[in-house]
Write a structure and sequence with these properties.
This protein starts with a strand and ends with a helix. The chain has helices spanning 43-51, 93-103, 108-121, 137-149, 167-184, 195-201, 219-224, and strands at residues 4-12, 18-27, 32-36, 58-63, 66-67, 78-81, 155-159, 187-191, 204-209, 212-217. With 226 residues, it is of the alpha/beta class. The strands form 2 sheets. It has a 6-stranded mixed beta sheet with strand order 6-7-8-3-9-10, with helices on both faces. A 4-stranded antiparallel beta sheet has the order 2-1-4-5, covered by helices on one side. α2 crosses α3 (108-121) and α2 (93-103) packs parallel to α4 (137-149). The chain binds adenosine-5'-diphosphate (2 copies). One adenosine-5'-diphosphate (ADP) binds next to α1.
Length: 226
């Protein structure tokens, strides 16, 4: 179960700029929430506040009824996938996927089991000994997903995870992500510029503009009945 609630969440950066104003959203368990809106409207800032990578200036973040504002990122049971993949170049695919678990002192045999399970789901089994430089964009993307999956988090945050891929791979990965969502039964918050991604993946779409939520609705209501 993972319900995520943002209540009057605001972000004022140290320079005084208010990037997010009174963000309100109740996300149900297993929802696939999409954030859309022009560049600079506060999508990443909001995602980073949920992850704990950015302090919440005011308001509350709740996960399953527990206030999370002051909980360390590593204790939030959340995994984030970035658009630049953020893989360690000197580590193999296996070690990249194992790293977050090693940090958390998970026993070695358990790490091994989880990495191999994730590799199977993501079709990475043949690539475990490779370094990121020897992978295609889509493969790197899958390793980044794998790093998130092995931790079995309640909530996945994805910030334009497909934006660096070419059109064909993007379509392929979009289908992979939809399958992953169904298979993992996880709650996902996903930032994208791509209307097709928003329409096909989202259970609900949050439209932001200049730090404010303009509209929250299902893809059907948002795009089919203008
Ligand atoms: P988006 O993800 O929608 O493109 P961001 O959340 O990255 O938008 O940024 C929202 C706004 O906050 C932008 O105007 C951006 O320039 C500003 N911003 C982001 N990070 C900082 C920071 N560290 N200090 C001041 N302003 C920032
Ligand atoms: P987890 O998998 O547990 O989320 P990560 O492996 O993503 O942990 O990251 C652990 C720490 O290493 C974080 O502080 C993160 O910002 C940092 N980190 C992640 N990827 C890279 C990278 N490619 N280069 C440098 N630092 C990184």
């Amino acid at each position: 179960m993972s319900e995520v609630t943002l209540k009057n969440v605001c972000k004022v950066y140290p320079n005084g700029f208010q990037a997010v104003k009174d963000f309100n959203l109740e996300i149900q368990d297993k929802e696939f929430i999409i954030f859309v809106g022009p560049s600079g409207c506060g999508k990443s800032t909001t995602l980073r506040m949920v992850a704990g990578l950015e302090e919440i200036s005011s308001g509350d973040l709740m996960i399953d009824g527990k206030r999370m504002n002051d909980v360390e990122p590593k204790d939030r049971d959340i995994a984030m996938v970035f658009q630049n993949y953020a893989l360690y170049p000197h580590m193999t695919v296996y070690d990249n996927m194992a790293f977050g678990l090693k940090l958390r002192k998970v026993p070695k045999d358990e790490i091994d089991k989880k990495v191999r399970e994730a590799a199977k789901i993501l079709d990475l089994e043949a690539l475990l000994e490779r370094k990121p430089a020897a992978l295609s964009g889509g493969q790197r993307q899958r390793v980044a997903m794998g790093r998130a999956i092995v931790r079995n988090p309640k909530v996945f945050l994805m910030d334009e995870p497909l934006s660096n891929l070419d059109a064909k791979l993007r379509v392929q990965m979009r289908i992979e992500i939809a399958k992953l969502h169904a298979r993992l039964g996880a709650t996902i918050i996903y930032v994208t510029h791509d209307q097709t991604e928003a329409m096909t993946l989202g259970t609900r779409i949050v439209v932001m503009s200049a730090g404010v939520v303009q509209q929250t609705d299902t893809p059907e209501n948002l795009y089919n009945h203008p």
